[in-house]
Amino acid sequence: MIILIMGLIPLIGSIVVGALPASRTLLAKQITLGASIATLGVAIGMGVAFEANSTDRFQFTASTEWIRSFGASFALGVDGIALVLIALVAVLVPAVVIASWHEQAPGRRSPKVFFALLLLLEVMLIGVFAATDVLLFYVFFEAMLVPMYFLIGSFGGPRRQYAAVKFFLYSLLGGLLMLAAVIGLYVSAGKGTFAFEPLIGAVTDPGTQKLLFLGFFIAFAIKAPLVPFHTWLPDAGAEAPIGGAALLVGVLDKVGTFGFIRYCLPLFPDASRYFAPMVLVLSVVGILYAALLAMGQQDMKRLVAYTSIAHFGFIGLGIFAFTTQGMSGAVFYMVNHGLSTGALFLVVGVLIARGGSRMVADYGGVAKVAPMLGGVFLLAGLSSLALPGMSTFISEFLVLVGTFTRHKAYAAVATVGIVFAALYILLLVQRTMQGPVIEKVKAFKDLTGREAWAVAPLLALVIFLGIYPKPVLDVITPAVQRTMQDAHQSDPAPTVGVTAEQKAGNR
Amino acid sequence: MSGPTGVAGALAEGAAAPVAASGAIQSGAWLLIALPLLSAAVLLLGGRRADRWGHLLGAAVPVVLFVYTVLLFASLHGLDGGQRSRDLHMFSWIPVGGFQVDAGLLLDPLSVTFALLITGVGGLIHIYAIGYMAQDAGRRRFFGYFNLFIAAMLLLVLGNSFLSLYVGWEGVGLASYLLIAFWFDRPAAATAAKKAFVVNRVGDAGLSLAIMIMFATLGRVDYVGVFSGAGGLSQGTLLALTLLLLLGACGKSGQFPLQTWLPDAMEGPTPVSALIHAATMVTAGVYLIARSSPIFNLSEDGRTAVAVVGAITLLLGCVIGCAYDDIKKVLAYSTVSQIGYMFLAVGLGPGVYAIGILHLLAHGFFKAGMFLGAGSVMHAMDDEVNMRRFGGLWRVMPVTWATFGVGYLAIIGCPPFSGFFSKDKIIEAAYDKGGTSGAILGTCALLGAGITAFYMTRLFVMTFHGKRRWADGAHPHESPPVMTAPMVLLAVGSAAAGGLMVLGGSLQHWLTPAVGESIEVGAHTISPVVLTLLTLLVVIGGVAGGFVAFGLRPVPVTAPVAVSPVTTAARHDLYFNAINESVLMRPGQWLTRMLVFLDARGVDGVVNGMAALFGGGSGRLRRLQTGFVRSYALSMLGGAVVLLAALLAVRFT
């Protein structure tokens, strides 16, 4: 029930905002903010009520018959992984609403449409993570494209049409493959249902598993995106309005990596194992390749987009290393990356709002003129390079250490990524924030209260979870362990170990 | 060897590992990290309101922490040797399946000794900075970063696992970055800060891989767990571990081949150079190796690598130190060189760790003192750093001269100043290693002592003696008491600390539970007395050389151009920066540019091309308007309907 309420709040909000007359912009914003905060409140309530060690796979379930003849139902529910991602959505949307308060459409559209679309996107994102029916998941997976498409295409930068079309085509191609795989799954499982749980382990034929795996995998790899399916993201991230970019890269892309864990691994365990080396290679290549590309970007939004592709490489690595640490780290990485990159996009947006340009070269010495902006920019950057003390470090280290226990070489190469991350972030900081104050920057205002309220909670959360990640990890880990069981995987034991005798001597 | 206990002992005899912390003083040790962190937050977020009192709060914090640490020291010192390792469990930090890391502190002689150095010398330098930064509009921010550093550094030494060490490790790296870039509108400062962080990250990558190996092999990353299981590791694993730990240590401590960032770090305000880039942070590598002594004890090759790195660096540092005219850069290379001595010592293995720590503590006093002296000189000379523009300052700055002089005597190893005890013992221990390697390492150390005496004499004479070569309009004056008082106290430490710590082997006994028993009398290769006399002779030679070259002859205001190839090379940092630039930076920039091009034309081009195959012309893709997308969407929806129909057919047939 609570999950339905959670989806209904932004849905009703979206409809109300959409129905308002175009002149009532302020009211539209207030309703949007209110609805998103109410949704956050529900998410907090769910977090408190959630029982991490419950034997049920899903909690807060709600189900009703949907398409009877297919055995498809409108079934919702969350496990620990879905819960933390839904919580991420609920945290990011209010921040984006606050940050986008003065959002203006470049064309004729009314700002209220922007906010209605934001809330609609929130509904779709909650649905895609909460769906426990494969067909329903597919529907949300496709439907969330629509609000995002219009956010980019109507409210984006100069090349918004090109970026929006590219985003749409890539996603549709992936979606089509997935639809085929969903149907194939239904047919070959022969259970007469789309419900997730009965389908686990239902497809046993190795060849079929591989084909179906690829259908899901390519759709998710485009969405995540992994190299070489990534080229739509820098365009979409650069042209989207800042709030849209934060949600696109912060959450929408996570649906891909979420899909790996929820669908690819439990439904096709043998195929997952078969294709794992390929995915690991793509991930490691992505970490280094995208990091090098990030260093070479002149456009700040494209730069952040490329850093995210490198981060997605870490997530892919953690998932397909098949260890509890790697996978828990990957899930935690998704949350942290959403907070961190969300914050980074919003801060970059503040800078762009001041300077009217996305180009790094148009800035210099900003921290001297606007110290708070400089400080927040640096903090967001440090969270992106996974500084210890911040939650991003915990997740990155868990991914690396989890990968290392099984695949030493991949982990060692991926570790080079932490040096690259320092370079691309600190180069950006140096070029924009430090050095002599250039003429244009001299008149810059420091962070306003509204801007601070949008970003500070995200960064505070990143720091808090860096010091005390246990509450989130305790929610994630049982769900990850269950996924490991579904995928017939177990952690490698320490090769030497500390013997009981030695332990006894120390206690 | 009588039963070593504590963390190191846990390996040797399975003896009692740390006992739970007891008493209010020990249980409250987390305040050592929380207080400076809180104060940093207050200073950085406090806004202009805090400008009036911010520096006072900032300086008071390390002083209070020092008092606390003294109490902590007393509470441990009152216990038996075996009881002096205390574990303070705080909370479960990262619990994921088999990976269980708790946040906790290890209070033992090694960590508390470091905490004394950090808070003691740190407190003095904080007080000094009140005066030094008085004219700077960013003084509150400065103290915020300084307190942040203290918190991170204390976490580094007090944490009870390699992972908490790593957090402190990168935390001090952040503080160092922020403080090098304190005057970030200067491009040189911004570049130096970035370089420091990135080079450090190279080392950090090594350290994090080492931690991964520990978890993969032993399933633990806390000190107790790792050390108690280390005996079961293969020689290959141990070597990999020691080399990766060494890589981490080289990054943080500015050791070969990662030394290039440290001289550039002198772009930061001078108190930063004194505290972070001389007395404390850069010695963290030595701490890491001493802390990991149970691992290094098991790998002869790993120890040799440490000693060799130390020997190379100590010579490299002092050779370059002879060539620079910038007083801070000379001191920086001197730091590189002195830390080389410490690495050499801890690389010599069981029994010599304590001597490395002894030199570290002595260095903490005398180098911090000399940096503060250099800051005092710069303060007086309008931020001039070129020693060719100094000269004859001893008359106008008697306190600075005298305190710097004590530091100078300490670093060259003049008895009975502190450097004498520590450096002499390192040279002795190197020779005592025996064999060819011992002879080579010992001779490097001996030679280094001579060159150190030479370049420090050069620095001292050029700055304080000889003719006044001041720039026009310079009116040097002695610094205010808030600056000179810390200098005096550090000078007292530089003079007396060495002797006090050696007296009756007090420091070695104190450190035994943490780093193992010191080997007192082995077979000496060369009689200690002879070696001491030989060392003194070499040092006197170096001093005489420096005095003849720079004290008796006039010093030209512009550096001579016609110099030997060695001097030219030394002036260019022995070309390490040039090598980095041509081997790493330029190819890296080309690679990046090439990839950016490829990604746009290649990967994206292929995809656009494929889209063109279906859509009929890539130009059309760019021109596509919303209407086209709607029709695409419709066609996809149509496809979906067809597929669903097919599904229905399957179901009902």
Description:
The complex is a heterodimer of chains A (about 500) and B (about 650). Chain A is mainly alpha-helical and about 500 residues long. Chain A is built from 22 helices and 2 strands. Chain A has a two-stranded antiparallel ribbon with strand order 1-2. The longest helix of chain A is centred in the C-terminal third of the chain and has 32 residues. Chain A is globular. The C terminus of chain A is likely disordered. Chain B has 27 helices and 3 strands. Chain B is mainly α. In chain B, about 70% of the residues lie in helices and about 5% in strands. The N terminus of chain B is likely disordered. In chain B, helix 1 packs parallel to helix 9, helix 12 runs antiparallel to helix 17 and helix 17 packs antiparallel against helix 18. Chain B is globular and about 100 Å long. Chains A and B meet through helix 7, helix 13, helix 15, helix 17 and helix 18 of A and strand 2, helix 7, helix 8, helix 9 and helix 25 of B.
